[in-house]
Amino acid sequence: MQELLIISGMSGSGKTIALRTLEDLDFYCVDNLPVEMFEHFVEHISQEHIDYSRVAIGIDIRSTETALKKFPAIIEKLKEKYRKIISIRLFFLSSDDKTLLKRYSETRRSHPLSNSEHNFSLSQAIRAERELLESLAIMSDLLIDTSKTTAPQLRDKIWKQVSTNTESGLSVLLQSFAFKRGVPFDADFVFDARCLPNPFWEKSLREFCGKDKPIIEYLDSKEIVADYFNDIFNLIKKWLPKFDEHDRSYLTIAIGCTGGKHRSVYLVEKIYRELSLSRKNILIQHRELD
Fold first, then answer.
1. Which of 5, 221, 262, 263 lies at a CB distance of 3.0 to 4.6 Å from 199, suitable for a disulfide?
2. CB–CB of 82/41 below 8 Å?
3. What is the pLDDT of residue 64?
């Protein structure tokens, strides 16, 4: 089956990096394809004599507003029409307004909507773009928040998501994070581990992380930690098959604590070990450690 990835998202969120990463993975990449040409393009690559097994296209705000509003319906129609021969998926990249403003300030590039036709300030252009692309973000198969992501981290995330697609079934990302740095934008489930005993207040444990033996032994000894883990794990194990049944491609489960170093890391590692015994395509990411 052919694979077609649509890369869309906010200007300045990393779409170019994503496309270059896919190109390195032997995808045939087309950047800034007008939405009006998308249907014809898919029809073209579906022909038997066209040997494009992996294709990625970039779609951004430079298409007309009318075409962008129709685009979600077009994607759904083509997914159904070519479902037996082409796997069509949409990756949507986004960042918060503050991060986008900073990136534009650093690069001194103009926003696509900051032109004489719209007469928008940069802040207004970002807000307008977010509204225009909202329907694409909602229907995306994978929503990636790049607000706190470096270019190498984004390349790694794209690589992991695409490489795991060679195996069937739902890909699950288990992610630890620090609440003080914000909840991951693209998380489907979020669990708060701040109610558990904090190793940070034990001076002898402070410098370790949740992957280290002293922290593991400390948290293993706490009954409340075992109860919390069992509740989370049983919930995940119970409901993952339901996501499988609905042909979901990706699911992000995020667990946070205060600093993202001890309790959340410990829980993510433990859930990863247990889930990996019965499922494929389990990924792990420690946001504050990576």
1. 262
2. no
3. 80
CA distances in angstroms from 154 to 55, 87, 146, 203, 225, listed in the order given = 19, 22, 7, 35, 32
> 39 vs 54, 112, 249, 282, CA distance in Å?
17, 24, 23, 34
4/96 Cα distance (integer angstroms)? 27
Two tokens, residue 130 = 């977010």
Q: What CATH number should be reported for the domain whose range is 2-166?
A: 3.40.50.300
Grouping H, G, I as helix, E, B as strand and the rest as coil, residue 230 is: helix
Assigned token pair, 250 = 């990706």
Checking if the pLDDT of 78 tops 70, the result is yes
At 90-121, the pLDDT tens digits run 999 999 999 999 998 888 888 888 765 667 88
Residues near 149 by beta carbon (within 8 Å), at least 6 away in sequence:
14, 157
* Cβ atoms of 175 and 184 closer than 8 Å: yes
Any idea what DSSP says for residue 185?
T
pLDDT at 279: 87
281 Rama sector, left if φ>0, alpha if ψ -120 to 50, beta otherwise: left
**Packing angle, helices 97-107 and 122-139, rounded to 10:** 120
Q: How far apart are CA 261 and CA 275, in angstroms?
A: 21
Asked if residue 214 has pLDDT above 60, the reply is yes
Mean confidence (pLDDT) of the chain? 90
Query: For residue 7, which of 153, 120, 147, 161 has the smallest C-alpha distance?
Result: 161
Q: Which two tokens stand for residue 171?
A: 């890909």
Pairing of strands 142-145, 189-192: unpaired
Within 8 A by CB and 6+ apart from 117, the residues are none
Question: Of the candidates 12, 226, 228, which has an alpha carbon nearest to the alpha carbon of residue 112?
Answer: 12
Q: Where in the chain is the domain with CATH 3.40.50.300?
A: 2-166
